[in-house]
Amino acid sequence: MTRTTIDFGIDLGTTNSAIARLNGVEAEIIKNDLSSDTTPSAVMVDRRGRLIVGQAAKQRGESDPDNTCLEFKSQMGTTGQPKVFAAAGRSMEPEELSAEVLRSLRHDVAKRTGEEITSAVITVPAAFELSACDATRRAAELAGLTHAPLLQEPTAAALAYGFQTDDENAFWLVYDFGGGTFDAAVVNVRDGEFTVVNHRGDNFLGGKLLDWAIVEELLVPAVAREFGLSDLRRGNPAWRGAINKLKLAAEAAKVQVSSAESANLFVELKDDSGQPFDFEYDLMRADVERLMEPFIVRSVNLCRKALEESRLGPGDIQKALLVGGPTLTPYLRERLADPREGLGIPLDHGQDPITAVARGAAIFAGTQRLDTVAAAPAPTAGEYAVALEYRPVGPDIEPFIGGRVTGGDTAGYSVEFVNPESMPPWRSGRIPLSAEGTFTATLWAEKGRANTFQIELTDPTGALKPVTPGTLTYTVGVVETQPPLIHSVGIGLADNEVDWLLKKGTPLPARRQISLRTTVGLSRGQGEGMIRIPVVEGEHHRADRNRQIGRLEVNPEQIRRDVPEGSQVDLTLLIDESRLVVARAYIPLLDEEFEHAINLQTETAPDPGRLARDVAAEKQRLQQARRRASEFADPRAEQVLARIDNERIVPDLDKLVDAAKVDPGAAITAENRLRDLRAATDEVEDELEWPALVQEARELIPAVREVVRDRGKTAHQSLLETGEAAIQEAIAAHDADLLRQRVAELRQLALRVLDESGDLAFLAFDELRTLQPEMRDQREAEQLMATGRRAVETNDVATLRQVNAALGELLPTPPPPPDPFSTVRRSR
User: Fold this and answer.
1) Which terminus of the chain, N or C, has fewer Cβ atoms within 10 Å?
2) Directed axis angle between helix 356-365 and helix 153-162, to 10°?
3) CA angle 804, 703, 770 (to 5 degrees)
């Protein structure tokens, strides 16, 4: 058959992947060679260079971790840490490994259906960075998928659950807890279309973290205790094989305790001397639930944040759609349903959570027309061709289409559409073609099935003429409107600020153009002076709190002549529906535009040593914030600290830093969690700034009152009352910036009163005396000081002001304003 739409959808997962095909209104999973719905995302290369994908590769990971690779999805978009398969001496980047999984899925389709596909929709986590999306595109190309639109996983899940829904106006929450990533998306369904209202997610929160928690907190201590193995830990390269075996055993046992109180693990290991021994362990459901708790807490916090930002509460959400293998866990479902500790939203688990994303991707694929049918096919002799413009899937039961018939003289011709499967058969009636062969028509379709319309072309006598294609298919179903940009995208500036180019929630496709100035000169043909502008993705106002996803670059080799420092560069950034990025740089001085001006492959796995130092420094900053929070007893700061503790960010970081010595994936996860910790500690410090500011304001008011009472005038008293009232209003509004401004205004009033009374000159002189060692000309400074001291003794305010001005000129920087509340008081 000749397909007019893509129809195939792929869930390219962290632990497992799957492919589905749309048939009518149902999406069916294409099973692999083992008749399984899913294929493990695992790759092995043996010593003869043979490449194996799937279950066999995953099983070999127990005994041969040096020649197998799993869970590489978390490294998509990074470079510099390829997997080296030791036996064959072959190295592969994350996108190359993903390409092998995609090839395996294509092979399954060919074997099961006989169809060689070159197009498929591929899902990515909504939280995926733009660099990871670009890596997924490259993986698709390497796998022979020349046309592969990308779809956000929550969107695919919503399609799987709601393709044929009758809901007219409802909000849903997609709770997608996968093997390695988590997405929470608020979806609004209205009039047969749905929109992603808001999203929160974490690319490094998934079921594999629970597997590692079981290994590190239960199994490793039990093995070490029973058999006395020395320094058995994830970060010790000597025990890599043993740790990997325990990890795979933990994953299998974790699944078993979802339906039983305990599961027995049996693993063959070797001791320090290489002697084999058998390790048995009874994994209890209660222990797994305890270890799962911090991951649930983090996922719930992300859901609540997504709802809060959407100005919605649990009562506004009709249902939560469960997606991902961990959502099969009874404990997780109980926690989510709890209105106090969870979400308190009705749960919908009517779809298979493991394959929902693949089936949703296939449904979306059915809405995507293939490029091969976008233009009218060349008709053969005696045949006509029709080029059609329409949506293959839509909410309307009376869809509107347009088209044009080519192939010869069409004067007096008509076109008619027939739906033979409706009862009775529906006909559009003959629609006359225009002089150019064009037409428009309104069809009638039934819900619940794919409607295939026959296309009948008749000449002026009513005789049927052959036309290609002879049919079109339309399905009534829920469709997505424009997808939103999940994270804001900007460029990092020299002062650690961010110039945001496109904000979160911007409908895609999106385009933005900005003008910048070069900070270095470019010399034609030389390797120095490259324009490099960091591109960041996130929401934090500090550039280093966001993830750097690439760089905008113009190389000296690309330019025809020198470009001096300060030259204008006009940058145009385009992001399409798949979140794929194109950047162009135009330099007016050269009157030349440079394509592909963005490098999305710049971030590598962090160095373990640097990572350990950064984590230690951040833990120290957190401790300081804890002490200050305890001093002020600020409830908002305490709430953020409780969240840090409940999500176990610090203990997780400690384990990840150790594991980073042997596992690049752990290093990338650790860096992401470190970024979370930094942002959370920033939040604590921001909250603590408020009580300190309030305390400063409340201490300032009586001091200014004293200055105004002793030295002020009636007008000053009126200004004091106004200033005090303004401070109280700012405190009531909990507005830090406004309070800071009001405090400065009140302090300025005190300085004004002291200046008019003459006291300010004496305070300023006292301040300048302490700064004498910093003055450039010590001889002149001493002469001025002597003059100043005589002016103080004689109460000569005018002379003292002149001395102060001259002393200020001798300082390398302007002197700070004098303290109007110095303990030194002059009696005049």
Assistant:
1) N
2) 80
3) 30
Instruction: Look up residue 790 and give its two tokens.
Output: 């005589």
b/e code 260-294 from CB counts within 10 Å (16+ = b): eeebebebebeeeeeeeeebebebebebbbebbbb
pLDDT value of position 823: 41
Q: Is the pLDDT of residue 416 over 60?
A: yes
d(CA 386, CA 408): 12
**Burial category of 32 from C-beta neighbours within 10 Å (exposed 0-12, middle 13-18, buried 19 and up):** buried
The Cα–Cα gap between 760 and 549 comes to 53
DSSP SS3 for 172 = strand
> Is the model's pLDDT at 192 over the cut of 80?
yes
Give the model's pLDDT for residue 375.
46
Q: Strands 42-45 and 51-53, how do they pair? A: antiparallel
If 0-12 CB within 10 Å is exposed, 13-18 middle and 19+ buried, where does residue 340 land? exposed
Residue 707 has pLDDT above 50, yes or no: yes
Helix axes 759-770, 778-794, angle to 10 degrees: 150
Residue 383 has a pLDDT of: 81
Mention every residue, 6+ apart, whose C-beta is less than 8 A from residue 352: 37
Domains of the chain: 8-206+294-365 (3.30.420.40), 375-480 (2.60.40.10), 488-599 (2.60.34.10), 608-716 (no CATH)
Mean pLDDT of 787-803: 92
Q: How far apart are alpha carbons 561 and 128 in whole angstroms?
A: 39
The whole-number pLDDT of residue 820 equals: 66
The pLDDT-based confidence of 372 (bands split at 50, 70, 90) is: low
Closest to 122 in 3D by CA, of 188, 93, 92, 106? 106
User: For residue 427, which of 389, 448, 453 has the smallest C-alpha distance?
Assistant: 453
Q: How far apart are CA 223 and CA 473, in angstroms?
A: 61
Q: What is the pLDDT of residue 221?
A: 94
Q: How confident is the model over 247-274, as a mean pLDDT?
A: 92
pLDDT value of position 374:
45
**SS3 for 384-395, per residue?**
EEEEEECCCEEC
> Which has the minimum average pLDDT: 12-26, 40-54, 455-469, 699-713?
699-713
At position 596, the amino acid (one-letter code) is: H
Q: What is the pTM of this model?
A: 0.82
CA distance 453 to 462: 19
* Beta-strand pair 169-177/547-554: unpaired
276-284 and 16-23 strand pairing:
unpaired
Beta-strand pair 193-202/479-480:
parallel
Structure token pair of residue 293: 């708790």
Q: Are 164 and 478 in contact (CB under 8 A)?
A: yes
Which has more confidence, 375 or 86? 86
Per the omega criterion (within 30 degrees of 0), is the bond before 424 cis? yes
Query: Treating both helix axes as pointing N-terminal to C-terminal, what angle do 736-757 and 664-711 enclose, rounded to 10 degrees?
Result: 30
**Which residue in 10, 136, 28, 11 sits closest to 78, CA to CA?**
136
Q: Would you say 431 and 416 are in contact if contact means Cβ atoms under 8 Å apart?
A: yes
Residue 373 has pLDDT above 70, yes or no: no
d(CA 575, CA 584): 12
One-character DSSP codes across 739-750: HHHHHHHHHHHH
